[in-house]
Write a structure and sequence with these properties.
homodimer, Arc Repressor Mutant, subunit A, D-Maltodextrin-Binding Protein, domain 2, DNA-binding, rod-shaped, alpha/beta
Chain lengths: 304, 304
Amino acid sequence: MMRVTMRQLQVFEAVARLRSYSRAADEIHVAQPTVSKQIRLLHEEIGLPLIELIGKKVFLTQAGEELYATCSAWLDSWGRFEQTIADLKGLKQGRLSIAAVTTTKYFMPRMLGPFCSQYPGIDISLEVVNRDRLLERMAQNQDDLYVMGIPPEDISTQSEPFLENPLVVLAPQFHPLVAKRNIQFSEVAHEQFILREHGSGTRLAVEKVFEERGFPLRVKMELGSNEAIKQAVAGGLGLSVLSKSTLNLDATQRDIAILDVDGFPIKRYWYLVRPRDKQLSVVAKTFMEFLKQHIDLLNPYGSR
Amino acid sequence: MMRVTMRQLQVFEAVARLRSYSRAADEIHVAQPTVSKQIRLLHEEIGLPLIELIGKKVFLTQAGEELYATCSAWLDSWGRFEQTIADLKGLKQGRLSIAAVTTTKYFMPRMLGPFCSQYPGIDISLEVVNRDRLLERMAQNQDDLYVMGIPPEDISTQSEPFLENPLVVLAPQFHPLVAKRNIQFSEVAHEQFILREHGSGTRLAVEKVFEERGFPLRVKMELGSNEAIKQAVAGGLGLSVLSKSTLNLDATQRDIAILDVDGFPIKRYWYLVRPRDKQLSVVAKTFMEFLKQHIDLLNPYGSR
DNA sequence: CAGAATCATAGCCAACAATATATGGTTTTC
DNA sequence: GAAAACCATATATTGTTGGCTATGATTCTG
């Protein structure tokens, strides 16, 4: 009984609705015998008469009524499905799920805003998590896109930089070097540093620079949050190196200053990452396109 | 987009449910590439990816989820439909609509009773109407079966007798002829008669007999109801000829007697009538079968 | 790392769905 | 009663579906 075809149901529905074979044939744009045949096949398949012709009038049997109800409902829900697909294609609706590492919370929301207003039907979810959580989510294919400072080596991912992510040296407002330009690296190398824990992208980069320059890195304190580090620097506990993104750009930071040290800012990037063989949804593609177009406007460090 | 086939949806549903191509292939008893192909066709038809393979795990895209929901619902409602059909075939449910002329109300309910209890899932509707109303209903195909004393000449109907319907001569309890056997027709011919109106089947039969025997029929009163006629006869207003069915069989009629007149009872039948080219429902067929089997038990005048 | 499991692709084929045209029989309508 | 409308049947054709086998690529699992 699974051999009933959609076409047959479509034809039947038209006949049942219009109570006429020939009008149904017109509506579907086929010849009348085609309709007759489809209906006959349906009868044979189901094993009960569905339609009665008394005189030339079309009546439905009880089984016919049942089928009519069933396939009306079906055509209805299929119609809704087609509409949904059309909407998805036309970006009139959809979901975009992004997971990003913590530091991005300083600028990601700002980038999502304009996208949201251009595509009001699209729901965006931005999960802000630490790097480990993010990798977990990636492994489980929970999101469309991921944003991180250091893309995984893993060949099963694809990544591209989309935004500069300079690392700058921070010092307390009244540190002696604040006013100086072109500070030599050696001048800050002996300072005490307050950094993120081992494994953090920023920490890795700093260690690498010190190693290249041949200076030992003196870490006074490890803190798990950028905010805490800024507070510590402001309090005069030491210097730090952080992504410039962490600085509040609007209200000028009163108690912290950026030192103009040679070799800084370290040029790094924020990467958009996705599973290599994940077919991006239309929404996700559009979002990436959108980012590329608007990046100049949004990038506060854009090298214009 | 109407070219999606049921088979494809069935395959997709299985894949989506089992989250595996090969297990789906097993379940449906086809080779794995067949599943791959169906899914690919579906993708092409819909124009959006529905399934993602990350590693070897099966994920559904948003469009996939939509389709899954849609076609789960469909399979569900199709299943219910199949069940309904099976029930109809197996007589576990159904409707039987019968229209019968007024006089049959004295015995039809009694015949329906056992059928009802044998097929408790079947709803029976018995419409008791006059002959004209019944013909109207027949023209509009409102019922499955019709019961009447004189089937229409109309070739567009088919009829078969199923029950005897003898017409008997009724007289008041204390009429002089009540005690007599083998009464000559001439002995009652001069009596006053109380009959149904012209056009009634009974009336026609009586007129015919009188004509055959060469006596004028003297009609004292025409009444529209059998009950009224019985009352009139009991009241001594005259004799009458009625279907024996109209007499209450249980409680012996105290004030009316049947005369044993030569030529009576007139042998007539109740007919089951149906539109010639109406395919009978399984229920209706079963009911006719049932009647034939039980008629001897039910027929109070059976010629055993 | 080897083997097992899983999915994709290619190529082929039988079966069938879907359709048209031509024609004939009823029923309805004018 | 003739014409029109309507449905059934017969037959031929065409494209597609649904299926298989064989093989290759990738990923997961001991």
